[in-house]
Fold each of these.
Amino acid sequence: MEHAASEALPESNLLDVFSAELWRLKRIIAGIGLNASDGEDVLQDVSIRVLKQQRRDSRTALLNREDSIKWLIKVTVNRCLMEHRRRRTFRRHAGEILKRRLQNKTASQPTDEKAILAEELEIVRKSLQKLDDSLLAPMVLRYFCGLNSKEVGEILALSPSTVRSRLREARMTLVKGLSERGIEP
Amino acid sequence: MKKSCEDIEQMLVDYADGQLSQSDSNKVAEHLATCEQCRRMHNALQKSLELAGVIWADSLSETENIHIPAAKSRNIRWSRYTAIAKIG
């Protein structure tokens, strides 16, 4: 994480850290596959936890900046996974994703290539949707939020070797989905 | 699948992530240079992650627009949550 490790914060600044780290929390929400409405609910709940934690910290030890960020990520991941279990995530189908993606590109792609890409995207989307919480969270934090295995382990209370083995399992699950449909790179 | 391929498959994700020691990484690279099947698996790992990246990026284009009111000018909904937090 790109922050000074032991920079102490004044007690009133947990909310500031929350505001500064919103970009990262929104990436987590997107990575877990929640839509904007569910994402807003998540952020509101996290903000409540921030306010409560801030009051608690004023009576006890303060969190430093790095710990504050890890705490925010942990709370956000847990809250997102609740939604992931409760609702269908990654609701936007591959055709729609592709349409939006291609709108931003000037060069048009041949129809058969588009069809193959749409099929592959749909398979991976469904694999992500079905991925167990224990695999999805490390996957998102490692590959979409850019944290390393040690940081992911600290946030999810896992050893780095457990994080590595879960990442292996998650990655193999995505590959399996593609190869079961006879799709090869 | 040869025994050595099974061993290599176990290391492919770590290899792709740059998590292997130099000697293990060299071992995997040497194997990939000669084994078509493992090379395909390695490519599939890369490709599936790229596809996941496309899905995540699309999802982010939606969540990036979530409006979070500034701390000093919360709207009614946020004020309600803040009040609850203070009680709790």
Amino acid sequence: MQNRIQELRKQNRVTQSELADAVEVTRQTIISLEGGRYNASLLLAHKIAQYFGMTIEEIFVFDLEEEDLC
Amino acid sequence: MLINTLLIGTKTAKTDKEYKVILEGKIKLWYLLGLIGVITIIIGSILEVGVYNYQSSFFGGFYIGFGVALLLVVTRKIVVTKKILKSDVKIRQTRLKMQDERRIMIAQKALVMTATILIAFLYIGMVVVGFMANVMMFWAIWSIIMMFFLVYIIVRIYYEKKL
């Protein structure tokens, strides 16, 4: 699953540590999320969306082909 | 992280206050482990002093060493945990670190992988023991494998009902 976390973070001039602290995870988790190596749980996705004032769908791009659902 | 996962599982706290309670409970668990360490040392000492069989001294020395190691680990854990409990900042830092969902997932995946590899090695061991005609060793390994699957089935049924 792709996401726009890095793009939004840079747009809002937020560091990885600040975002990590706000959504209550470690900085390493933010790094893994941005690198696409880790998919956020529904709770974390919700927290991130809330932090940027957006919806989950606007941040996390759910690829039907990638998830083998089409 | 492994010991924490084994001791506390995936119990999570939403606030620092809740996490403080978990940490306080954790100290009690460390004390319990310390008690197990002391009991192990006592058993080791009994074996070391009295000669119950030709390998008493070996087992005595091993148990004493294991007990002392356990006591050292527990003491360190208690000191560190008490230090954390004194500072609100450290409580929050530890909560975020220990309850990080990625870390928990890594620990769970590592445990599953370890269990799978362990069972594979035990199976190989069971086959190798057959060539040595060591019946006692065979039953010991077989019992561990069967116990593993029995516990797995029970825990699975528990979670099927719970979740």
